[in-house]
Predict the structure.
Amino acid sequence: MNQYLSNQFENLDKISKEYSNAFQSNKPFPFINFKNFFNEQYLNLILDNFPDLANTKKTHEFDTPRDKKKFVTNLGFSFPEKISNLINFLNSYEFLNFLQTLTGIKETLIPDPYFHGGGLHEIKRGGFLKIHSDFNYHPSLKLDRRLNLLIYLNKNWKSEYGGDLELWNKDMSKCEQKISPVFNSMVVFKTDDYSYHGHPDPIACPENVTRKSIALYYYSNGRPIEERNSKLTFHSTIYRNRKNSEENIETKMPEFKKLFGKIYLRKKTDI
């Protein structure tokens, strides 16, 4: 038996084929939410070893109109051992094959050894992440970002706390899915220029409770042209206003126009 997975999901080859159609047909963009995916005892150890990000030297903290959160991409390339072991499994050949079949992505999926933007995330009371599509190109690997994988670590999370992951449609007129960040849920979704998501409203958990997650991103060398916004090439995170809201976070975003070789021109573009 795989020590990381629950009995229900230990046969990854079978699970990937069984859920592939559901993943690829889900709206507003391909995604799936697996509940109780991991061995509960092992995930309890992950939670027990989750570091205090407020006292971690490599913690990145944001407090802007677009996001209010903390995350750590690595701890000097040394996550706590239990967490490191789980991440190594999620970046293994076995698990990459599972993702490849589940998602139907044709191009070979590649994990990120640098955890650029990924790693351990923690949101405190009042924190949020406005609706956005992610940066689409890894600055070091020079690869296209294709998948997000989120593991939630929040025991006894109550609905009144908020913090649901919201998935919005292409014209930002409707939230089509809400996913509660409860313990032992794993969400996998495709990322492209139109995969708008976030948890946009301040969470209302008690001061001694935080919204914890592990975030991993997967890449490929190239992607289908229909997944690209023709007005954009390589861009950072694009934030969008929710329709019928009073938000004012949508701006012209930086675009990196390739000139030749590894030379890029930075400019602003409308979305």
